[in-house]
Amino acid sequence: MEFKMLEGDLMELYKAFVITFHVETKNDIDLVTWTLEYEMLNEVVEHPLSLLSFFIDLTKDIETHHVGK
Question: How far is 13 from 52, CA to CA, in rounded Å?
Fold first, then answer.
């Protein structure tokens, strides 16, 4: 699944921003891959590490929810 940012706060810092996630199942284990593709407006803009951290935490929360079922 892919999300292309068209407007909002992210677009104030980046020329382009696309978030992609892919789920692949191997041996009854679901593997999640998040990809953040972005182009910064200038060199002063930082890499979106806090957003990546958010997606990692989100994935862990989803896993915790589903393991209990």
Answer: 16
Q: Which helix (H) or strand (E) holds 22?
A: strand 14-26
Give the residues across from 24 on adjacent strands. Answer: 31
Report d(CA 39, CA 42) in Å as an integer.
9
The pLDDT tens digits for 1-16 are 999 999 999 899 999 9
Residues with Cβ within 8 Å of residue 66, at least 6 apart in sequence: none
CA angle 6, 9, 11 (to 5 degrees): 45
| Joined tokens for residue 56 | 């990692």
Give the integer Cα–Cα distance in Å for 57 and 49. 12
Quick one: pLDDT at residue 42? 94
CA 19 – CA 33 distance, rounded (Å): 11
